[in-house]
């Protein structure tokens, strides 16, 4: 798990299951688990265009709401490579960065971040529409 900002962390499934030092968890993996923290699971397949683009808004809304309450949020998927970095990119885009700036910011702190091109296309289409 890596903190991108004081209030936002990115990671993989094992990070979410290991009781990380956060207040809220957004789980994007196909695996559900019990957590004593504020917890939300929104699953969408990796390596595919998102069929329901509104899931992007659901994810960023959860992150925004938790951060607004001064909660530290972990966004994770299974491997911590594509889905989690896609949603963190979306959140930073909503904070005023361009997609390129957001991804560069994430990769500078978390080099494993590599959103799949189909998921990035989903982001472009969600924000364009």
TrEMBL record:
SMART domains in UniProt: DSPc
SUPFAM superfamilies documented for this protein: (Phosphotyrosine protein) phosphatases II
Matches recorded under Gene3D superfamilies: Protein tyrosine phosphatase superfamily
Gene Ontology CC entries for this record: cytoplasm
Keywords: Hydrolase, Protein phosphatase
Tyrosine-protein phosphatase domain mapped to chain residues: 1-129
Pfam family, one: DSPc
Keyword Zinc-finger included in the entry's annotation: no
Single Gene Ontology MF annotation: phosphoprotein phosphatase activity
InterPro entries: Dual-sp_phosphatase_cat-dom, Prot-tyrosine_phosphatase-like, Tyr_Pase_AS, Tyr_Pase_dom, TYR_PHOSPHATASE_DUAL_dom
Protein's UniProt name: Tyrosine specific protein phosphatases domain-containing protein
């Amino acid at each position: 798990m890596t903190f991108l900002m004081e209030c936002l962390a990115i990671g993989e499934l094992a990070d979410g299951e290991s009781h990380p030092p956060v207040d809220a968890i957004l789980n994007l993996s196909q695996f559900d688990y019990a957590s004593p923290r504020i917890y939300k699971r929104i699953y969408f397949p990796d390596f595919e265009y998102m069929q329901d683009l509104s899931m992007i808004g659901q994810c960023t809304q959860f992150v925004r709401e938790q951060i607004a309450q001064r909660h530290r949020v972990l966004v994770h998927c299974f491997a911590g490579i594509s889905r989690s970095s896609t949603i963190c990119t979306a959140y930073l885009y909503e904070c005023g960065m361009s997609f390129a700036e957001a991804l560069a910011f994430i990769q500078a702190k978390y080099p494993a971040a590599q959103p799949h091109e189909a998921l990035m296309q989903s982001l472009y289409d969600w924000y364009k529409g």
